Amino acid sequence: MSHSLTVALIQQCCSGDTAANLETQTRDIRRAATAGARLILLQELHNTLYFCQVEDPALCDLAEPIPGPTTDHLGALAQELGVVIVASLFERRAAGLYHNTAVVLDTDGRIAGRYRKMHIPDDPGFYEKFYFTPGDLGFSPIDTAVGRLGVLVCWDQWYPEAARLMALAGAELLLYPTAIGWNPDDPAAEQARQREAWITIQRAHAVANGMPVLACNRTGHEPDPSGQTAGIRFWGSSFIAGPQGEILAQAAEDAPQILTATIDLAHGEAVRRIWPFLRDRRIDDYGDLTRRFRD
Q: What InterPro entries would the database entry show (predicted)?
């Protein structure tokens, strides 16, 4: 028997006006709910520009507590519409202690749980280690009215260990709020390779774990505030994949979009029966996975 769930991804261009960004999200969440979505995923750090292009202590003023104004607003919206909303916030835990945090608001408006980003990049244009402390909540799925969600964030999407640990803890879907894009100065062939690698690795997580994957990316060009680089052109391309990696829906590269699809959650059970990867894992011989490198 099928167990269907309609999901929506809100792919958005962000501005420096946090109130306007939240207003846009609210409008699009309402539209997604009207279209039948019961699970709605927002992109990474959706309230602000992607401020990690530079290292500036003053930008820590963008952080907010959880619970706080955004979770209060989105929680009330989730309760009103009877939907689950997965948000992505710059969390202020204490003075000088911040996280890149995904928050799940359940259909009754409460915070069902949070996930603090575990893998923190430090690359040109993505100076996240300056702002974010690595997560300390582990890889724990969050139970909601629509199912058990394995929520991860952006850079986590490159790590099969993170997806597998969520699967081993009983997650029914993997969700990745994301902010990733091109250096506009890179040649077109390099840009294409990067985007395809991003899509491929996440589809592989769906295949390897027999569960759907939802990846919500931002879109639009955001200049480098320092003027030292050409900024980032976020490549959009948000997508929803089924448990065999099949693309159920995919957004454009260069435009805001509400992306929806209906997922048959029971199909994952059927897939795992014919591809029983969890059964055949050699857990007795994987000890070296906890080492940095086998010298």
A: Aliph_Amidase/BUP, C-N_Hydrolase, C-N_Hydrolase_sf
Q: How far is CA 71 from the centre of its chain?
A: 17
Q: Report pTM.
A: 0.97
The answer to whether residue 285 sits within a structural domain is no
Q: How far apart are CA 89 and CA 66, in angstroms?
A: 9
Tell me the DSSP string of 46-83: TTS--GGGS--GGGGGG-B-SSSHHHHHHHHHHHHHT-
Measured CA to CA, the distance from residue 163 to residue 151 in angstroms comes to 9
Residue 197 lies in a domain: yes
With contact defined as beta carbons under 8 Å apart, do 188 and 212 qualify? no
Residues carrying an active site annotation = 44, 117, 154
Tell me the helices (H) and strands (E) count for the chain, helix number first.
5, 17
| CATH for 173 | 3.60.110.10
| Residue 295 domain-assigned (yes or no) | no
Which residues partner with 232 through β-bridges? 222
Residue 289 domain-assigned? no
Q: How many domains does the chain have?
A: 1
98-104: average pLDDT: 98
Residue type, 78: A
Q: What is the pLDDT of residue 1?
A: 42
Cβ-based neighbours of 233, under 8 Å, separated by 6 or more: 181, 182, 184, 220, 221
pLDDT of residue 218: 98
Give the tens place of pLDDT for each residue, 243-287.
999 999 999 999 999 999 999 999 999 999 999 999 999 999 999
